Amino acid sequence: xxxxxxxxxxxxxxxxxxxxxxxxxxxxxxxxxxxxxxxxxxxxxxxxxxxxxxxxxxxxxxxxxxxxxxxxxxxxxxxxxxxxxxxxxxxxxxxxxxxxxxxxxxxxxxxxxxxxxxxxxxxxxxxxxxxxxxxxxxxxxxxxxxxxxxxxxxxxxxxxxxxxxxxxxxxxxxxxxxxxxxxxxxxxxxxxxxxxxxxxxxxxxxxxxxxxxxxxxxxxxxxxxxxxxxxxxxxxxxxxxxxxxxxxxxxxxxxxxxxxxxxxxxxxxxxxxxxxxxxxxxxxxxxxxxxxxxxxxxxxxxxxxxxxxxxxxxxxxxxxxxxxxxxxxxxxxxxxxxxxxxxxxxxxxxxxxxxxxxxxxxxxxxxxxxxxxxxxxxxxxxxxxxxxxxxxxxxxxxxxxxxxxxxxxxxxxxxxxxxxxxxxxxxxxxxxxxxxxxxxxxxxxxxxxxxxxxxxxxxxxxxxxxxxxxxxxxxxxxxxxxxxxxxxxxxxxxxxxxxxxxxxxxxxxxxxxxxxxxxxxxxxxxxxxxxxxxxxxxxxxxxxxxxxxxxxxxxxxxxxxxxxxxxxxxxxxxxxxxxxxxxxxxxxxxxxxxxxxxxxxxxxxxxxxxxxxxxxxxxxxxxxxxxxxx
Length: 630
Prior knowledge:
By secondary structure, this protein is α/β, with parallel strands linked by helices. It has three domains: 3-271, Divalent-metal-dependent TIM barrel enzymes (TIM Barrel); 288-416, 2,3-Dihydroxybiphenyl 1,2-Dioxygenase, domain 1; 435-624, 2,3-Dihydroxybiphenyl 1,2-Dioxygenase, domain 1, CATH 3.10.180.10.
């Protein structure tokens, strides 16, 4: 599999783009003409620079408004083409993209277009060049790859071939199986892009909202399976027009791009076993069954405050590490680790982010296989020296520079708590409050990073995305999307903040990019849990009484239930499948907090409709406590 990406897909000047593309491991690059025109260097200089980065130029593009033009415009198009051929030869590439005509002057007709391309093919052949023809979804006469293929077929020239672009096919919901009958040698290059499903003008949709395969809603896998069935083995190239990407980090966007291609072709290989596909060997997506532990980094003083809160929430001190200043707190199947070491990665994380949940441990079927797949998809491995009595736990770097550890039950990793920790020190445990498991982990990041981490999780694990929702903060919107396994035992919410005045944005700014903003624990009986918490001295986040007046009317709640919710500061939501109850701790530190939830029936959401009232209560609490304003 030869991977490529168009320079238009990422930000920076041409040199910065090429550096990022080469570092991400791409084989080639499409040169978008505007990137070349803005560069202060000759075509030969650009070609040499590209080859010095170990890349080849897979395509020069775009050449617009060519076929079907009346005279005198037709003669001018051939003059323009000859100039581009000169440029291509100096750059050192042999393939140019011609996209279907959008000019109001253009004339229709398959045979007329074929005749123009045949003449262009003759001119290209004399120079040892090739031309690929692509149907734009908004082309004036040709907007369907089936018509574009018919033109190429009638052209019947070895220097004229077809260019397939997944966006142009899928945006019009064209049957991808029509691709399967196209001869592989007549497809000169395949361009790939995904996009969210949005009902808007095709040109505007394409120019602003494309994203990497797997990041959107289009059936790119079906498209690529059809392409693979032809036997095509040429370059797979990303052509992504996205305002967010143009302002993002070229390095991270390039890494995302290559990850998306490797993940896509790994899926094709597994769903089309009879088709030979060259793709890096890796284990299949891994089943992750839940959160094994969450680890906090802190200093001694702040750890004392955090541990007092955990004690009030019913967590018992279950063990101390055999060789480090690390304490295990446990309730039900929830393991929380507080690390106060003065050296190592946890201490470094504390120095940067303050007290934070810097590491997640996920329970997976096979820890080694999970790490191998993550590395094959471009994840950064994490390793540090193991001390006496420690296991070497496979790990990678995650959101915000944190760590994700992998634990399984088939190896010694399943005994990590017995091996690495000595039993508790005899301290009297608090009254348990009925917390059983981690319901979900909420990770906060800049909005521009959301697609990166959604692709990260879904490409490594057997998890799926839920629809994106908008969380209304008085200071702006926060975009939220959940990633879940099939049974709902592992849930991660990814929250994108667009400005630092929101509670989420303030958290990112004040913790210098720390990612886990809250942990939600699950109980089977939230009112019993609320009573036990109160007995332990836990004070929940106070919720506005106006909320409860509206809640009772909105859902037609029984008066007794409404009063119990009000008395315990519990929020409530309901859908067609079940009910959801939420109880929050006050903010800890710079915006971190805990949530306790009960799910009844088949409720699968996260209480998004309650978020504005929770955020208002948190900001009110911050003001009352004299904390820095948000």
